[in-house]
Amino acid sequence: MEGKKVIFSGIQPSGDLTLGNYLGAIKNWVRLQEQYDCYFCVVDLHAITVRQEPKDLRRRTLELLSIYIASGIDPEKNTMFIQSHVPQHSEAAWLLNCNTYMGELSRMTQFKDKSAKSGNSIAAGLLNYPVLMAADILLYQADLVPVGRDQKQHLELTRDLGERFNNLYSPTFKIPEAYIPKAGAKIMDLQEPTKKMSKSSENANGFILIMDPPNVIRKKISRAVTDTIGVVKYSDEQPGIKNLINILSAIKSISPEQIEEQYDGIGYAKFKSDVADAIVEELEPIQSKVKQLVSDKKYLAEVYKQGAEKAKYVANKTLRKMKKKIGFIPEN
Ligand code: ATP
Ligand code: LTN
Q1: Which of 3, 31, 157, 250 could form a disulfide with 23 if both were Cys (CB 3.0 to 4.6 A apart)?
Q2: Domain with 74 in it: what CATH number?
Q3: Which of 6, 11, 82 to mutate to test the pocket of ligand 2 (most atoms within 8 A of CB)?
Q4: What does residue 331 show for φ and ψ, rounded to 5 degrees?
Q5: Same domain for 99 and 13?
Q6: Ligand 2 site: residues with CB under 6 angstroms?
Q7: How confident is residue 222, by pLDDT bands cut at 50, 70 and 90?
Q8: Closest Cα to atom 8, ligand 2: which residue?
Q9: Considering the domain boundaries, does residue 192 fall inside one?
Q10: Who contacts 238 (Cβ-Cβ below 8 Å, separation ≥6)?
Q11: pTM for this predicted structure
């Protein structure tokens, strides 16, 4: 592991995962695991910024870990863990919070969107959440953070907070870069292709879940909104088709231009059925592995315990430095 650059990323166990989460994040993690020292976290502390039913949170946390493993992230080579098992994240978040401005948090697009949906009782955690995300990343001295495009703004804040601390005290944190994939960076809603595909969307036809059965995937793709132009072209005037091209491009690792060429003169029905086949082919083996893994609680426990042990060691090293520099008396 020594000498390898460090990657940190995480997903919240706050709902069922979509094809957007898979193509924007997980699929790239699988690619990156060979070259980097990777930490992949199930960020359960983030999930409680919105109300969670305890039994659903428990089930989803283990299902998410199973999805990581089933997608091809090797527990032997990577550190996979559950955020709440490593209390250093919460502690570092508090320290960073004291150097974060209300203004910069209330400007975050995701906060504005999500708080608008929360009515009058907006949890303070929803505002503070990007500080916890910064703590996640900075504690591991991460070089790269592979995420979808919607997280770019949070990454910029992470960099600002890291630099601020480094300047205020002395160099403590590595300043991380976002790693945003070319093809799957922003998968759009199938019914409203100008909106991000999101698990919290009201119309289930707008998203594909990683665990959707093949017939459901085929139905959702065949109903995906397109246009009346009739050519498979990668253009902003055809957001529905552009989204389907992005999906195919991310799954098959071929460029949008190649897809345009391949479907020159071919109609939407055939194109859609090929996109659906590609998704099914990609997700089916993952689904069967997830089903196996979720019932193997003992194995999952081995993975997350081992992961937390390694994560705690690394996180604690950074946290100790932070506390010392701030002026706290070391315990020993
Ligand atoms: P919600 O959709 O409920 O707002 P979310 O899916 O954005 O939540 P997470 O589950 O934490 O939040 O996202 C995990 C990762 O998936 C992040 O890296 C995020 O950028 C990525 N991601 C989420 N949606 C998409 C999408 N539609 N396209 C590409 N990447 C996405
Ligand atoms: N905020 C992210 C999830 C997240 C994350 C992280 C991603 C929490 N901590 C650290 C990368 C690195 C989101 O997608 N909602």
Answers
A1: 250
A2: 3.40.50.620
A3: 11
A4: -70, -35
A5: yes
A6: 8-10, 12, 43, 46, 133, 136-137, 145, 147, 151, 154
A7: very high
A8: 133
A9: no
A10: 226, 227, 229
A11: 0.95
SS3 content of the chain, % helix, strand, coil (to 5): 55, 10, 35
Residue among 279, 254, 11 nearest 147 (CA): 11
Residue 194 lies in a domain: no
Same domain, 237 and 116: no
- Nearest ligand, CA 145: 2
CATH number, residue 245: 1.10.240.10
User: 277 alpha carbon to ligand 1 midpoint, in Å?
Assistant: 23
Q: Which of 114, 220, 242, 272 is catalytic?
A: 114
Domain count, the chain: 2
User: Mind listing the pLDDT tens digit for each residue in 56-78?
Assistant: 999 999 999 999 999 999 999 99
Residues 87 and 213 in one domain: no
Whether 196 is catalytic is yes
Report if residue 100 sits inside a domain.
Answer: yes
Q: The domain containing residue 108 runs over which residues?
A: 6-184+297-326
Q: What is the pLDDT of residues 5-26, one digit of tens each?
A: 999 999 999 999 999 999 999 9
Q: At what angle do helices 268-294 and 297-326 cross, to 10 degrees?
A: 90
| 303 and 171 share one domain | yes
152, 174, 186, 199: which is the annotated catalytic residue? 199
Backbone angles phi, psi at 134, to 5 degrees: -65, -40
Q: Are residues 91 and 219 in the same domain?
A: no
For the segment 256-308, what is each residue's pLDDT rounded down to a tens digit? Answer: 999 999 999 999 999 999 999 999 999 999 999 999 999 999 999 999 999 99
310 in active site:
no
128 and 77 in a single domain? The answer is yes
Query: Which ligand has the shortest distance to the CA of 186?
Result: 1
Cα separation, 275 vs 279, in Å, equals 6
> Do 251 and 111 have their domain in common?
no
Distance 19 CA to ligand 1 centre (A): 9
Q: Return d(Cα 183, Cα 196) in angstroms, integer.
A: 14
Q: Which ligand is nearest to the CA of 200?
A: 1
Given a contact cutoff of 8 angstroms between Cβ atoms, the answer to whether 300 and 147 are in contact is: no
Residue 1 lies in a domain: no
To test the pocket of ligand 1, the residue of 11, 17, 21 to mutate (highest count of ligand atoms within 8 Å of its CB) is 21
**108 & 10 share domain:** yes
